[in-house]
Amino acid sequence: MKSKKILSVLMAAGLAFTLVGCGNSNSNSSSQNSNQPADYVEGVSLDKPMKVDKEAGTVTVLTKVNGKYFEQSTRHNSVEQSGTNGAKSIFTAYAKPEEFYNALIEIGAQPGNNMTPNNGETTHVEGTKIKTEVTWNGAGKKYDINEVVKDSNGKKINFRFGGNLKAAIDKNTGCLSCLDSCPVGVISNETYTYGAIEKRKEVSFTGNSDVLPEDGTYVAVIYSIEK
């Protein structure tokens, strides 16, 4: 009997050791995952803020959520952080407009180049239609731009590759994407003409706080040609 009791104690101790060992293994795995830099999202990071995948036909840009525009309206969807409009957008980007322009050319997009300061208020931007999606660590999916940015009129955001390379460089606003047709932004929303948001107050745009993560979270914005 004594030998059976000793054997039972040894078996129980061995099982406990095994469970502890497994627990430590899982803990280390979780720790390793949590140690991934917060700015590393969908293959882009502060060290490499833009990725072009010609085979997939995508341009991915690292950005950061600006929670100010969960409450306030803006006409700026995504602006490079060092541009003069760098703090005025829902998404603060880390790729410059000229880099973004060249990347869209690389995946086969064609610029419309039909916008000027003189015709902006009566002209809808032209160029290749650009699909825009957003994701972040833990999101579990890619969200369409219309799921993460709210149009007060309930209309759909339709981005087109306006081009505007010279204006983008000369003006140094940093504008990658604008929420009304724009003579400076690389892509912009054909749904509204220039001035619809700030000047004529036809519509307002805000980030969707019910979907987007909190202020300051790094997100990846993925651009592709609309099929």
Describe this structure in words.
With 227 residues, this protein is an alpha+beta fold. The protein has one domain (50-225). 24% of the residues lie in helices and 24% in strands. The chain has helices spanning 2-34, 97-106, 145-148, 165-171; strands spanning 50-53, 58-65, 76-80, 89-93, 130-135, 143-144, 149-151, 159-161, 175-178, 187-189, 205-207, 218-225. The strands form 2 sheets. Strands 1, 2, 3, 4, 5, 6, 8, 9, 10 and 12 form a 10-stranded mixed β-sheet that branches. A hairpin with a 4-residue loop joins strand 1 and strand 2. The longest helix has 33 residues, at 2-34. It is globular, with a radius of gyration of 24 Å. Mean pLDDT is 89; it is low at 1-33.
Query: Which descriptor suits the 3D outline?
Result: globular
Largest sheet entry: 10 strands, mixed
Order of helices and strands: HEEEEHEEHEEHEEEE
Q: What is the number of strand segments?
A: 12
Mean pLDDT: 89
Number of H- or I-type helical stretches: 4
Could you say which structural class the secondary elements and strand pairing correspond to?
alpha+beta
Total individual domains: 1
Distance between the termini: 76 Å
Keywords: Signal
Protein name: 4Fe-4S ferredoxin-type domain-containing protein
Organism: Gemella sanguinis
InterPro entries: 4Fe4S_Fe-S-bd, YdjY-like
Quick structural overview:
24% of the residues lie in helices and 24% in strands. By secondary structure, it is an alpha+beta fold.
